[in-house]
Design brief:
Helix content: 10-25%
Largest sheet: 9 strands, antiparallel
Bound molecules: flavin mononucleotide
Number of domains: 1
CATH topology: Pnp Oxidase, Chain A
CATH superfamily: Electron Transport, Fmn-binding Protein, Chain A
Order of helices and strands: HEEEEHEEHHEEE
Distance between the termini: 16 Å
Number of helices: 4
Strand content: 25-35%
Oligomer: single chain
Radius of gyration: 18 Å
Structural class: alpha+beta
Length: about 180
């Protein structure tokens, strides 16, 4: 087990895991839980694939369908959460993010890089979440107009590393990611 003595090293470790998630399809860091607030007061959580990350600008990007319910939730409240649990390294990552939603022509350069077999998941008819008569009573289409890029601007990161003695810390953008240890 790693025993971090320095806050910076602990945060570096977090970003190394996210980098691994981007590169390695088997890493659970690739599949965070993305949590939004909904109008009925219940939080809504779902798995999304990390499409890119930028430590320098503290951003993580996801792709989604403009007709999915998370879009309405984000329109109402762009504050969202990201949660990742990495069992091999016993690390939990929690993030508070503010989401900028990109749709329309601005997404065309991103769309070009989406593999063809993934493109068909943007544009399902009827829209995601619609009640169906039977399980396969829908069609895939490939529709750039239904493609959205969610740019998550990270505001805070909280880390919990399990071990003989757990290690917990939080970091905030407002304090330039300086970090503080927390009691686990
Ligand atoms: C492993 C896995 C990866 C997924 N990746 C994405 C993704 O990258 N983008 C996406 O919109 N939905 C993805 N989904 C589907 C979402 O979890 C969710 O069901 C869908 O986006 C509709 O969510 P909403 O109705 O809450 O908006 C994925 C689901 C799983 C199980």
């Amino acid at each position: 087990m790693k025993a971090f003595q320095k806050l910076d090293n602990f945060l570096d470790f977090c970003w190394a895991q996210i980098s691994r998630g981007k590169a390695d399809k088997k890493s659970p860091a690739r599949y965070p839980t993305f949590v939004t607030s909904t109008l009925n007061g219940f939080p809504s959580a779902r798995t999304l694939v990390i499409r890119s990350y930028d430590r320098k600008n503290n951003q993580i990007e996801f792709h989604t369908d403009t007709a999915s319910s998370k879009m309405l939730a984000l329109e109402d409240n762009p504050h969202a959460g990201i949660h990742i649990w990495l069992p091999k390294v016993q690390l939990q990552i929690q993030m508070e993010v503010i989401v900028e939603v990109k749709v329309g022509d601005i997404t065309i350069p991103y769309w070009r890089d989406v593999p063809s077999k993934s493109k068909v998941t943007y544009g399902t008819i009827p829209s995601p979440g619609t009640v169906l008569e039977s399980p396969f009573a829908y069609d895939y289409t490939s529709n750039q107009k239904r493609f959205a890029v969610l740019v998550c601007d990270i505001q805070a990161i909280q880390l919990l590393l399990l071990g003989d003695k757990h290690i917990r810390a939080h970091y905030k953008k407002t304090t330039n990611w300086q970090g503080e240890w927390l009691s686990p």
